[in-house]
Write a structure and sequence with these properties.
By secondary structure, this protein is mainly α. Helix content is 71%, strand content 0%. Helix 1 packs across helix 2, helix 2 (15-41) crosses helix 7 and helix 3 (51-74) crosses helix 7 (147-210).
């Protein structure tokens, strides 16, 4: 039976597919760490209280990248090149989602609108990350090799999502509600398209590595397209709603360190 658990188990059991999976994940997390670090450094004086939380967010992303690299090291594997069509983070940036890297490489302070854009982008992508990690946690929380990593990253992603909700609501109460809703909608509609394209690309690479029959690959592709159709029709709305989270000040403390896996 084809299921999320059986699919990931196949990827986990094969060294080549596992190295590709971890390399893709590590690259995206490291890129997110750099972006958050630059944003924290460029926060305007009027919002300096937000900078430590953004720094914590970036430190968490860096930690996740180190965790995925450590999982490869534990199996004696080396990182592999990430195919550009599977690079979710860079494709988002190339499609104008979030803050452009040219802006982040400069030393010009960001504006409040830039922070609204950053938080809106993060609210959408952290929704995706939280859902993906909860799926892995449901099936692999007790796995002897990856369970500890899955639990730690899942907790962090839930904290990141809570932080985005709380900070966006703060900006909404300060009069930025319309800009937030407009930006959230634009980000969500773009993200679901890019997520579809990346998912198709990743499954194509995994299928070739694992020797999947054409029928299996076609079935997986059909499922990805069906998921996109649902998200395009209505599912994207879960990415744009805002509510005060149960986890208040979720990024108010220091980042936790990556555990040793090797």
């Amino acid at each position: 039976m084809l299921s999320a658990r059986s699919l990931f188990q196949e990827i986990l059991d094969d060294d080549e597919s596992f190295a590709l999976f971890c390399s893709i994940a590590a690259g995206g997390e490291s890129q997110g760490g750099w972006e958050n670090g630059r944003i924290a450094a460029l926060v305007p004086d009027s919002q300096r209280a937000l900078a430590p939380k953004i720094s914590r967010h970036g430190a968490d992303e860096d930690k996740h990248g180190r965790i995925f690299n450590a999982l490869m090291t534990k199996r004696g594997l080396e990182p592999v090149p990430v195919p550009p069509e599977t690079d979710y983070t860079m494709l988002l940036e190339k499609n104008g989602i979030g803050l452009p890297h040219d802006k982040l490489r400069n030393d010009e302070p960001l504006t409040v609108q830039d922070l609204v854009t950053y938080l809106s982008h993060s609210r959408v992508t952290e929704q995706r990350a939280s859902e993906q990690m909860r799926l892995l946690r449901r099936h692999f929380a007790d796995h002897p090799d990856i369970g500890r990593a899955v639990r730690m990253i899942s907790d962090d992603e839930d904290n990141h999502l809570a932080y985005c909700h709380e900070e966006l609501l703060r900006f909404a109460y300060a009069g930025h509600g319309r800009a937030i809703q407009r930006t959230l909608r634009e980000c969500a509609l773009a993200e679901i398209r890019i997520y579809r394209d990346v998912s198709l690309a990743v499954m194509d690479h995994m299928g070739r590595i694992l020797g999947w029959p054409r029928a299996k690959s076609a079935l997986l592709a059909a499922g990805i397209h069906a998921g996109y159709a649902y998200e395009r029709l209505a599912g994207w709305r879960r990415m744009v709603s805002l509510r005060m989270p149960e986890r208040r000040d979720a990024l108010g403390g220091p980042a936790t360190t990556a555990p040793e896996f090797a």
